[in-house]
Design goal:
Number of strands: 10
Helix content: 10-25%
Strand content: 25-35%
Strand order of the largest sheet: 7-6-9-10
Number of helices: 2
Radius of gyration: 19 Å
Order of helices and strands: EEHEEHEEEEEE
Oligomer: single chain
Shape: elongated
Structural class: mainly beta
Length: about 150
Amino acid sequence: MRVTHDGRDFPPLRAGFEWSRAQFGELLDALSDHRTRTIRVEVREHDGSIFTDIIHATRHEHTDVDSPAPGATRRARHRPMRQLFEVRGSGFVPGEDVAVALSISGAEGSANGTARAVIDLSQLVDHRSEVVLIGRVSGVIISEFVSS
């Protein structure tokens, strides 16, 4: 696999190796500086087809854990218990970003190509909802219905 970045060859991170499809997640991390920069990716296949995508920088939310809001302890006592639901799937590219439908959260493929998402059911309006894992590189889609 030949890789260019801004018109220049982009060599593998390890000398003596070549980029391969199995390293696509690692390649995207290197090109996007570990998801700190948004990049446009264009993949040209041998059959002439072209795949284009935008890989967005990861957002990092900062919360101040040391200073809870006034009355937070009281509210916590009256908050309902969390119900968690887990969706698992396989077939993802190792290291690939995996989207979790309903825009609740995201997941990442593990080294063996699996992904995992844990969902707080109190965030779902309708407990008869569908949760979907979508591999952003592999295109793998795992779908599971949540019932109350």
